[in-house]
Structure formats: C-alpha cells, structure tokens
Specification:
heterodimer; A: mainly alpha; about 75% helix; B: alpha/beta; Rossmann fold; 2 domains; four-stranded antiparallel β-sheet; 9 helices
Chain lengths: ~270, ~260
C-alpha cells in the first residue's frame, strides 16, 4: 500500500471540508442535538422513575456510543459519495490507485470526522448532563474499538452496495444503522427480544458493547470475554466488507460500470 | 502535417522500436454484443495514432480497456512492455488520459485537483510541476477557482494539465479539443505534438475532427463495429481508397455493412 496515494484520497476530503461549512456543520450539529434530546429524556425519566435507576449513563451513554458508530459509518460513506456525486471513479481508477488505498483513504477520513463528532458528544454530555466517561479511562477503548470497526465495515459495505446498484441506492444506505439498532439492544437487554432476533443479535458485534455497557452501569465487572468476541466479530465484518467491495469492484471492471458510472447509466 | 512550427519527424519504424503501447487481439463482449473484436495495433515512441470511427465503433471501449477500467474478454495490453493485466499499477503509472466525459471533480479548485492527482501518480517535485502546467495550459489565474465553474474549454485545459502531470509515456486523448476554440485547440495540438516529438511518449488520439486528425496524427486506425477496418497515413489514406478527403473516407467506413 502506497502511503502517498492514501494521503491523496484523504487530502481530497480535507479540501472539501476546508472550503465547505455545510460539510463541516453536520459532523457536530446532529450529534449535539441528539445528545441534548436524549439527555433531557433521561433527565425526565430520572424524575418519574421510582426504582432509583440512573438513566443518564445507561441511556445517554448508549445513545452516545450508537451515534459514534453511526458517525464512523457515515464518515466512510460520505467520503465515497463525494466521488459518486462528482462522477470521479474513472479519474481515480484509471490511475495506479489500488482499491485498498482508496478504501484506506475513506476509512481515515471517517476516523477524523467521527472523532470530531465523538469529542463534541462527550463535551455536551458532560457539560449539560454530567455524564463523564473520564472515570472509565482506557477501559472504554475496547467498547469504542468494536463500534469503530463495525462502523467501518458498514461504511465499506454501504459503498459496495452503491457501487453495485448505482447512485439512487444511496437511500438504502442511510437507514442501515436504524435497521441494525433493534437487534443490538442499544436501549434494552437483548434478552427481551424474541428468539430469532436474539439469534441475529449474537452475530452483531455492537450487541456485546451495549450488553457490556449495561453490566458496567449496574455495577458489575465488564465482560471482557464477551467484548473480545465482539471485537473478533467486528474484525471479521471489516474483512468481509473489504472482500465484498473488492468483488463488486471486479464486477464493475468486467461490466464497464466504473467507466460509465452515473445516475442514469447504472442498472 | 504537424502544426506550424513543429518539424515532422520521420515516421517511426514500429517493428524496430519497442512499442509504447501494444494491443494484441483485444476483445470485449457485453453479452452477445462484440463491442471490440480481435483488435491489434501498436503505438511507437514519438508517434501519434488516431483512433477513428463512428459512434459505437468501439473506440472508447478500447480506450477504457487500455486505462484498466474495463476488463477485456480476451487479448493482451502492454504498456512499455508491462502487462496491464498482470501489473496494473506499474502499467498505469506511465499512462495518463484526458477525455471529455471524465471532467475532474468540480468541487476542488484547479490547483487542488492537480495536487491530488499528482500525489496519486507520485509526481516528484509536485509543486514545481503544478506551476509548470498552470503556466503551460494558461490556468494560472484559475488556480483558486473551483473546476466546476470553469468554462468547458478551461475544464478541457485542466484535464490536459492533469494528463501531463506524470509526464506519461502513453497519453490517451479522447476528443481532447472538442470544447475548445480553434485558437486554443491549435495551441494545445502544438503543445502535445512538441511533447511527443521530444520523444516523451506515444499518443492514442480519438477525434471526429478529420482536419485535426490529418494535422496531428502520424497514422490512423479506422474502427467500425468493433474491428479495425483501415490503417494508414492520414495524408494519403483517402486517396488510396479513391475518395477526396478523410471526411469522405470516414463516411464510407461508417456506412460499410
């Protein structure tokens, strides 16, 4: 892998952000609004709840982590969509650029944008609702890593779907986190789900993050073995997503899709 | 006939020189449609080869295969002896292209586009190279302008500047002067001819402008229905086939069953 070519892909995205406040604002704005919304909901639940259960770390913490995954995925797919919208595939792929270098550039861009979003979320959650993750320290890293890798995998898979089906399929990509969230128990234990949904949830890495989060919040030790399983699954998801993208790219090279990629020509 | 002020070099003896581009029995099928059918040709160093033919003849399909964005059904492409199928990165590092249907990202400025693509092609002393190309293609005043707001002629000049970034050994030009006024088109033809005559590269040039083809090309290949039907010197080919001009020959080839 050539680092300069990866840097070129990242630089292209930096140029776009530098000259475009409308691209920068969504990185912060929506996650801040989400944290405010859920912060007030959890505060309200604390006032009406009689169990003494503190909803702030359980619900607001879960929203924060889920938004992080969503931001990682969208960071990767948005970077890809920039090339869809500017019909740039022919220019990029008629060069020595490899798909692995292109994907690495997209992922690095996604890391940058999602970290900025995470910092804003942490700041709002702490300043407005007193939710501090500082106490968890490095113990939080494996949780974030599982979500980060899952977000990367979903982002690459989303890019593969759009490359295969055409720009109009972009609208299939945005709801993916919403479709996944009921299965991974962002807001409730997966034990409450019907058996078939629990079977699905067991193969989804974020399940182990949110189950672990609830364990920690309720004063139990973090289930590191379950998190390790989630991490392994997340790595497998990334590898599978890369293989799917590579397969779709090979198909696009065989069929001529890369050469004639546009909203009107993709069937 | 080369553009004024540019000496015509002796036509290269292709057999004696290692080709910049070698295409052997290239085929591309889309289902039952044979878009390109056993096409073979070479481009020698210092040679400009015109690839001509009506719409749908297979010219752009051939160029897309040489650019590595379309996999051949059969056949072999070598760029300076490097097999494109086996060593795609090495082969494409010495290639570049400009095409009217592949504008550079409109949301980057002229300078940003050149920098990004210069990095992808690993151009040494990139900043200096960018300045040279901005000057050569009269883009200095547009360096901070988004490519999307340039006129079509200015966008074409930017595409050509991008195509020269890595000093390619093989330059693929698909109707490079289609949106340019005659004066700018003449300057651009002269610039490319000068680059080629310095021995820097070979060029495969498609155009529907037969005057341009006759002016700039050393050899032409006429394609129709995926096959090369005629090949020869653009200055003599029409006479050899009993017609008055390349335009007439083009029409005759296009209507050939």
């Amino acid at each position: 892998m050539n680092a300069t070519r990866v840097a070129a892909i990242v630089l292209r995205q930096l140029y776009l952000f530098r000259g475009s406040p409308q691209r920068v604002l969504p990185i912060f704005a929506w996650v801040a609004v989400d944290i405010l919304l859920w912060g007030f909901i959890t505060r309200y639940l604390n006032t009406v709840g009689r169990s003494g259960f503190d909803f702030v770390p359980a619900l607001l913490g879960a929203v924060l982590l889920w938004d992080f995954l969503t931001r990682v995925m969208q960071g990767v797919t948005m970077a890809f969509f920039e090339d869809v919208w500017s019909r740039n595939f022919l220019n990029f792929f008629a060069t020595p650029l490899r798909t692995s270098e292109y994907l690495a550039g997209l992922v690095i861009t996604g890391v940058g944008t999602s970290l900025m979003g995470l910092i804003v979320m942490l700041a709002v959650a702490w300043l407005a609702f007193g939710l501090s993750v500082a106490g968890y320290g490095l113990a939080l890293a494996p949780f974030l890593m599982v979500l980060f890798l899952t977000g990367v995998a979903l982002g690459i898979a989303g890019a593969a779907i759009v490359l295969r089906l055409g720009p109009a399929s972009e609208w299939l990509i945005w709801p993916i986190p919403t479709l996944v969230s009921p299965f991974v128990g962002v807001f409730y234990p997966v034990a409450i789900l019907p058996a078939w949904m629990q079977a699905v949830s067991r193969v989804l890495p974020p399940t182990y993050v949110f189950e672990g989060l609830r364990a920690v919040v309720s004063g139990k030790p973090a289930p590191w073995d379950r998190l390790a399983l989630g991490l392994g699954l997340a790595v497998a998801f990334v590898l599978m997503a890369c293989l799917v993208f590579a397969g779709v790219y090979r198909h696009a090279i065989r069929s001529g899709l890369i050469a004639r990629y546009s909203a009107e020509t993709v069937s | 006939m080369r553009p004024p002020g540019h000496a015509v070099p002796d036509r290269p003896n292709i057999a004696a020189i290692r080709a910049i581009l070698s295409v052997e029995r290239l085929c591309k099928s889309f289902g039952d449609l044979r878009a390109v059918d056993r096409v073979s040709f070479r481009v020698a160093p210092g040679e400009i080869v015109g690839l001509l033919g009506p719409n749908g003849a297979g010219k752009t399909t051939t160029i897309n295969m040489i650019l590595g964005v379309l996999a051949p059904t059969a056949g072999r492409i070598e760029i300076e002896g490097v097999d494109l199928g086996a060593q795609r990165g090495r082969a494409l590092a010495r290639t570049n292209f400009a095409a009217v249907y592949a504008p550079l990202p409109g949301n980057l400025t002229v300078e940003q586009n050149l920098r990004v693509f210069g990095m992808i092609y690993a151009v040494e002393r990139l900043s200096q190279r960018i300045e040279e190309l901005l000057a050569a293609y009269d883009l200095v005043r547009f360096r901070k302008t988004k490519a999307g707001v340039l006129s079509s002629g200015e966008q074409t000049r930017l595409s050509l500047a991008k195509a020269m970034l890595n000093r390619p050994r093989l330059l693929l030009l698909d109707e490079p002067t289609a949106s340019i006024d005659p004066s700018s088109a003449r300057d651009i033809r002269a610039g490319i001819a000068e680059y080629v005559e310095a021995g820097h590269c070979g060029v495969l040039w498609t155009s529907h402008n037969m005057v341009e083809v006759e002016t700039v090309c050393d050899r032409v290949l006429f394609m129709s229905r995926g096959r090369i039907l005629l090949e020869g010197d653009p200055k003599t080919l029409a006479g050899e086939h009993g017609v008055a001009s390349l335009d007439d020959l083009f029409v005759a080839v296009a209507h050939k069953p």
